[in-house]
Every structure is written in structure tokens, then in C-alpha cells.
Design a protein that fits this description.
This protein is α+β, with helices and mostly antiparallel strands. Helix content is 37%, strand content 25%. Strands 2-3-1-4 form a four-stranded antiparallel beta sheet, with helices on one face. Strand 2 (30-34) and strand 3 (39-43) form a beta hairpin. Helix 1 packs across helix 2 (48-57).
Length: 65
């Protein structure tokens, strides 16, 4: 599991965009988001850096929580 802080997450639409970015790296990944905390937990076998890069390209730069 990879825990991330994504300051730009503000609504369900943002969560959907984050899920799409994660799925581009690992279609089987499971994303659990907490909008109020601006935190996302991703259960994935994907490379951590590939995940961070995909989120950055999607406009949702993330930091490890």
C-alpha cells in the first residue's frame, strides 16, 4: 500500500481523475481517498515512481504521506 497526500483533491471528480491516473499505471489498483484529509491510499503492485509520475501528468502532484 502506498499512502499519498494530494493537495489538489477537492471533490469526487478529482478522485475520479486520480483513479484514472492510477489505472493507467495499474488497472488492478485499488484507490481509497479521503477528500477532507487530501489523502489517498493505493493498493498496487506498480512502481511507486511510475505512480507519482502518472499523478503529476494528470495534474495531481502527490507527496508520500
Amino acid at each position: 500500500m502506498i499512502a499519498l497526500t494530494i493537495p489538489k483533491i477537492r471533490c469526487e471528480g478529482c478522485v475520479a481523475s486520480v483513479e484514472k491516473a492510477v489505472a493507467s499505471v495499474d488497472p488492478a489498483a485499488v484507490v481509497k481517498a479521503d477528500i477532507e484529509a487530501r489523502r489517498v491510499e493505493v493498493t498496487t503492485e506498480a512502481d511507486r515512481q511510475a505512480l507519482l509520475t502518472a499523478l503529476d501528468v494528470a495534474g495531481y502532484p502527490a507527496e508520500e504521506a
